[in-house]
Write a structure and sequence with these properties.
heterodimer, A: mainly alpha, B: alpha/beta, Rossmann fold, Alpha-Beta Plaits, 2 domains, 6-stranded mixed β-sheet, 4-stranded antiparallel β-sheet, 11 helices, 14 strands
């Protein structure tokens, strides 16, 4: 009988399967967004005399004012130029954030679930595990980018503009940014036990570097910082804009960085304990300590305990929102000056009035609310984790009724939403102080209240989704709902759909509170989503066959 | 007699034969009740139904006279539960976990937790993720024993504990019983069930098969008999005897299981010249294997 051990099988097929649904849904959603945006723009152009030429000339100066949010605007008289300005900047950031979440998950996430021990015990070496997991993500990323490419080509075909060739370079650049984000998060996760902290920190870096790349021209002596932003290399590859060549060197640098950082993560993974961190300090051996102390933090309130549990992640998100808003607000005067010098009269809007700092800030505060929505998606993932790791079981087996459980969830939700809304407002205030202008207190208060209601509303829907699905599908569902809302808000105006079609969108309900209270119906809608979502989650929980997972 | 746990027609049907069906059970106040059965028999489902963590397809259950669904919070105030699937709190220390649950329960003396930690030799200042499985189990045992519960519902409570800690657990359970508390536990450690429990229920494929004291289960069941003889034995004649099963004959040695009276067996063996007879009461594990086959792991 041969004693030759059988070779263990690669994890790639399994890992690919685990990415399959998420990657296809994610890629298809983005592809759909791109596919519809092009024809919508053309349809809008047809409605005015002069078509795309006129629309491009009118929209160009306005778009340029928001370049620090979206990337440079050029050749808006073409569908390629418009897609590059309108959606591709956001897509590159969204793909990067997705990759950051995956980068933290593939090794550290599997490790915390105990899977790595099993794979290792099954005969896979650390290098093989690492390689298999990385390759499977790369394959998933290629699928996502391919879908975006297909969506872009389709968008061009539906708009009578051939984009198949020019889209390729820009899609490759989106993939390169995703790889850098993935590698950075993978690297960060080697130092941290919590995947959410690693992906949160990476997300802060990504969001900050996104804006840094967009405003790098106005950074003066520190403009060299742009080289540390993956989005700077992406911006060199805006091949959808007619006349922009493919810059192989820029993509090469981004890929080189991704490979180097991933190699660093591989080395760290090789030299640390499973379940450990590279820089863990080894304290002096101490005596066994049996003594129980009362906590300084009162844990009789679950909401407080839950917030305390995820304080680092919440801090990262608040810091990210604060940094993002502060950077945006701080560069507003510079951006206005640039426009004034470069475009003169073009800086004027249709009304004839030049944009003020406050109008700018109103716009950017409405933009940052997307980050609050993203936090709520991660919170839903956290609730799913509470259930799947039997923490909900443990709580409900104590004298904690389902009513109290849901009420405490709502309490945590309100406090976290308030923290995020506070970070938003503080960021705007700080940015305005740096930029040397002032903001309206009433506008900031309205923004705070509406952002709080927004977080509460989205979270309430999240509670209901988790009560219904009780699995990772909950995260996909709440993500899909938010993407659909964002999509509705983006497209309905362009397509001149009736107002009610945009009604369900939470982004539309949020509106632009800095400039004025949203319609009372919108505020009630956001609040009702929270209250009804929480109440419905209680009913589903109470009447369902499974109370806890 | 006061009833601590009572179920009527309690059913949780997960489909394809999985779940628990038509369970009628009474656990008396103050007794230790063992629940044994193979993997997937429905033990954990029953315990989770009692804790209102899952809801029955039909039937009812009550604990200490209270409805498990309607009065679940009141029940949980006086019930300690050790889950089979341990909750994960990777970033918490043992102390923080116990602190959280002590606060939720209210009125827990920290000194009692300290004493329990000492008894279980658990450093509660280490992070949960650093604990071995046995140490994680200790956290939930401490959480269960940190107050004077009237009922202890425990799913595989000694899973991962070393023999010394199993002994510590048994002592705590005995103390609880002496206080008048009721214990309802499922276990894979059958000698432990034998040692701790006053009565035992055997569950198989979602159905209750037997309930009784150890002596009742022994009476209703089987002795394992081993006989040495001088002459050949007619195996077929032995198998025809009522109550005799699992006959194995080799080299003037015969083994079999006998349910009930062994007299007819001895009469049948007489012509073969009996040299020695060994008869042993089957323990719970053997009864279990005999009843449900060698592939039915308890």
């Amino acid at each position: 009988m041969s004693m030759e051990p059988t070779r263990s099988r690669s994890l790639v097929p399994w890992a690919l399967q685990s990415h399959r649904n998420g990657a296809i849904t994610f890629g298809a959603g983005l592809a759909l967004l791109v596919a519809i945006t092009g024809p919508s723009y053309v349809a809008a152009a047809k409605a005015i005399a002069g078509g795309l030429q006129t629309l491009g000339a009118q929209a160009g100066p306005i778009a340029q004012q928001f370049a620090f949010l979206t990337g440079p605007a050029a050749r808006l008289d073409t569908v390629g130029g418009y897609l590059s300005y309108k959606v591709f900047g956001s897509i590159s950031l969204i793909v990067a954030l997705y990759a950051a979440v995956q980068g933290a998950q593939i090794v550290r996430g599997s490790e915390s679930k105990g899977l790595l021990d099993l794979w290792f015990a099954a005969g896979r070496s650390r290098s093989e595990i690492f390689r298999d997991r990385v390759l499977s993500f790369v394959a998933a990323l290629i699928a996502i980018v391919a879908l975006i490419y297909l969506g872009t080509g389709l968008s061009g075909a539906l708009s009578n503009e051939a984009l198949w060739a020019s889209a390729l370079g820009q899609c490759v650049a989106v993939g390169a940014v995703g790889l850098v984000a993935f590698a950075v998060s993978l690297f960060a996760s080697q130092f941290l036990h919590a995947t959410r902290t690693a992906s949160g920190l990476t997300s802060v870096y990504l969001v900050a570097s996104y804006f840094l790349a967009n405003i790098s021209d106005s950074l003066g002596p520190v403009s060299f910082l742009r080289f540390f932003s993956p989005f700077f290399y992406y911006l060199q590859e805006r091949t959808l804009v007619p006349g922009t060549p493919f810059d192989a060197a820029a993509v090469g640098v981004a890929l080189g960085v991704a490979i180097a950082v991933a190699a660093g993560a591989w080395w760290l993974f090789q030299t640390r304990d499973f379940g450990g961190v590279r820089l863990a300090s080894i304290g002096a051996t101490r005596a066994v300590n049996y003594t129980m102390h009362r906590s300084r933090l009162a844990r009789r309130w679950l909401w407080l305990s839950w917030i305390w549990e995820q304080r680092l992640a919440l801090t990262c998100w608040c810091l990210g929102i604060f940094t993002l808003t502060a950077i945006e607000a701080a560069v507003v005067p510079t951006a206005l000056n640039l426009i004034k010098h470069d475009h003169g009269a073009l800086a004027k809007l249709g009304s004839g009035a030049a944009l003020t700092e406050e109008q700018y800030v109103a716009f950017l505060l409405a933009f940052v609310i997307v980050v609050v929505a993203s936090f709520m998606v991660t919170e839903v993932a956290h609730w799913v984790g509470d259930a799947s790791q039997h923490r909900v079981d443990a709580l409900l087996a104590h004298p904690v009724g389902q009513q109290r459980f849901v009420a405490e969830r709502v309490g945590a939700l309100v406090v976290m939403s308030a923290a995020l809304a506070g970070a938003l407002v503080l960021g705007a205030l700080t940015g305005a102080a740096i930029g040397g202008y002032s903001l309206d207190g009433g506008g900031l208060l309205r923004t705070f209240v509406t952002a709080l209601l927004f977080g509460f509303g989205v979270g309430g829907v999240g509670l209901l989704v988790v009560a219904i699905f009780r699995s990772a599908a909950s995260t996909a569902v709440i993500g899909a709902l938010l993407v659909a809302c964002f999509f509705l808000t983006t497209i309905s105006g362009l397509l001149h759909w009736p107002g009610w079609t945009n009604g369900p969108s939470v982004f539309d309900a949020f509106g632009s509170p800095y400039q004025g209270w949203p319609a009372s119906g919108s505020l009630v809608y956001l609040g009702a989503l929270g209250v009804v979502g929480a109440a419905a989650s209680y009913l589903v929980m109470n009447r369902g066959a499974r109370i806890a997972v | 007699m006061t009833v601590a746990v009572e179920t009527h027609d309690l059913t949780k049907d997960y489909g394809q034969g999985h779940g628990i069906f038509d369970l009628d059970l009474e656990v008396r106040a103050g007794e230790a009740f063992g629940f044994i059965g193979p993997n997937g028999a429905g033990k954990t489902t029953t315990l989770r139904l009692l804790m209102d963590l899952v809801r029955p397809t039909r039937g009812t259950a009550s604990i200490l006279g209270m409805d498990t669904q309607r009065d679940s919070v009141a029940i949980h105030r006086v019930t300690a539960y050790v889950p089979g699937e341990l909750p994960e709190y990777p970033n918490h220390t043992g102390e923080r976990i116990l602190d959280l649950f002590a606060h939720l329960r209210g009125g827990v003396d920290p000194a009692r937790i300290t004493a329990l930690a000492r008894r279980f030799d658990l450093d509660i200042h280490r992070r949960y993720r650093e604990y071995s499985h046995g140490n994680k189990q200790k956290v939930w045992l401490i959480a269960a024993f940190m107050f004077d519960a009237r009922l202890y519902i425990m799913d595989e409570p000694t899973n991962g504990l070393d023999p010394l800690m199993q002994q510590a657990f048994r002592e705590l359970l005995t103390e609880a019983k002496n206080r008048g508390a009721t214990v309802f536990l499922s276990s894979h450690v059958l000698p432990e069930v034998q040692e701790i429990c006053d009565r035992i229920a055997v569950i198989h494929q979602g159905h209750l098969r037997q309930v009784g004291t150890m002596s009742e289960l022994r009476l209703s069941n089987i002795h394992h008999v081993e006989v040495r003889v001088t002459r050949p034995i007619d195996a077929q004649s032995l198998q025809r005897i009522a109550g005799v099963s699992a006959v194995d004959i080799s080299d003037h040695r015969m083994q079999c299981d006998v349910a009930g009276n062994v007299g007819p067996l001895l009469e049948a063996l007489q012509p073969a010249g009996i040299v020695t007879i060994e008869s042993a009461e089957m323990n719970l594990e053997q009864i279990f294997l005999n009843e449900y086959g060698t592939d039915a792991q308890p």
